[in-house]
Every structure is written in structure tokens, then in C-alpha cells.
Specification:
With 195 residues, the protein is α+β, with helices and mostly antiparallel strands. The chain is 30% helix and 32% strand. It comes from Paenibacillus phytohabitans.
């Protein structure tokens, strides 16, 4: 992609998917809601402390609405939510995406979650490496961030394993799913420093 173009984000040609060694990561499609809903149900206890959508079990229709809204947001280039699948057997593993996008600065934040039965295999770290490469190669990223509650040890460990640098801790900056204000860790990779 020629980053010198001053195109509106909606006019940017952005691939719908990318692959890593073990994963296919692609934009949401209508019909993905049922499988995502099963994964949410399986993982509800692990997701509940960190994910607002997991405070109670959503209906399949609600998850399908999320998938279709994600599709529209991807096409509008406002949020780039993607689903993670195993290349070996097609298993739906979880979600990753780029959000809080600043196209002028080419700044992106990535967030992720994994289905409980797939945790502990390095899939999310691999997906973070993949989406980081995707953001650099396809979107001309200057800065990629991972933000998480300082209490979310697993998410912070992913950021560190993926080579992100802790820029700082924002005290009492985010109201998490538990309703409390949490400190937020801000990790980043920056062009000219980490890539």
C-alpha cells in the first residue's frame, strides 16, 4: 500500500485476511455468530473480568449482530475486528482486532481474546505477531498499542512475549467489566524503535 496516498480510510484497499504459521486470521462474515457464541459460552468465566460483552451469556442472535456490525466497521475502516482459526482443522480460536484507530498518525490499538479450550498454546501471541506485521505492512502503522488492566496478568504477558515495550501505567484510567476503576498498562511498538 502506498502510504503517500491521502485517501479516506474507506477507500483504502485492505486485505480481508492474513496467515501465520498455524493461524488464519480473517474479517468477520455473516454466519460467524453461532461458532463465536459457542466459544463465548465455553469461556464466559475467563472473559467476564475483562470483557464487557461477557457479563452474561449473549443470545446467538446478539453475537450474530456483533459479527455483522464488525463486518460493516471493517468495510468503513473504523474498527478492524478479525476472527482467529486454526489452519490445521478450522477450529475457531478467538478474536483479535485493531481499534481506536487514528489514520492521520497511523496509530492502532490491538485487543484479543481466546476461547478457553485453546488457551496455553501460544495462539494469541502468534496472532499478535501476525496482526502487528499486518498493521505495519498493509496499513503503514507508526505505532501499535496494547492496553490492558494492570490486573490482567495474562494479557500483559502476551504483550511482553510479543515484544511490546511498556510505555507506562495510567492510574485509575479505565472502568473495567467489574465496575471498578483499574490502572491500565500501555504497551507499544513504534516505527524506528521496535520495527
Amino acid at each position: 500500500m502506498d502510504m503517500s496516498e491521502n485517501l479516506l480510510p474507506i477507500l483504502l484497499d485492505i486485505p480481508e485476511s492474513f496467515e501465520t504459521e498455524r493461524l488464519l486470521v480473517r474479517a468477520a462474515r455473516p454466519g460467524d455468530g453461532a461458532e463465536m457464541n459457542k466459544a463465548i459460552g465455553e469461556s464466559l468465566n475467563e472473559l467476564k473480568p475483562w470483557m464487557p460483552f461477557a457479563q452474561s451469556m449473549p443470545a446467538v442472535e446478539e453475537t450474530e449482530v456483533y459479527v455483522r456490525e464488525s463486518r460493516v466497521a471493517y468495510l468503513k475502516r473504523s474498527t478492524l475486528n478479525m476472527l482467529i482459526f486454526s489452519k490445521a482443522d478450522g477450529t475457531y480460536i478467538g478474536n483479535i482486532g485493531l481499534h481506536h484507530i487514528d489514520w492521520d498518525c497511523r496509530r492502532f490499538e490491538t485487543g484479543y481474546w481466546i476461547r478457553s479450550s485453546c488457551a496455553g498454546n501460544g495462539y494469541i501471541t502468534e496472532a499478535v505477531h501476525g496482526i502487528t506485521d499486518f498493521a505495519i505492512r498493509e496499513l503503514g502503522a507508526e505505532r501499535i498499542e496494547i492496553r490492558c488492566s494492570a490486573r490482567n496478568v495474562k494479557s500483559a504477558a502476551v504483550a511482553e512475549r510479543a515484544g511490546f515495550t511498556l510505555d507506562g501505567i495510567l492510574r485509575k484510567s479505565t472502568r473495567e467489566a467489574d465496575g471498578e476503576l483499574h490502572d491500565s498498562k500501555v504497551y507499544a511498538k513504534v516505527r524506528g524503535v521496535e520495527f
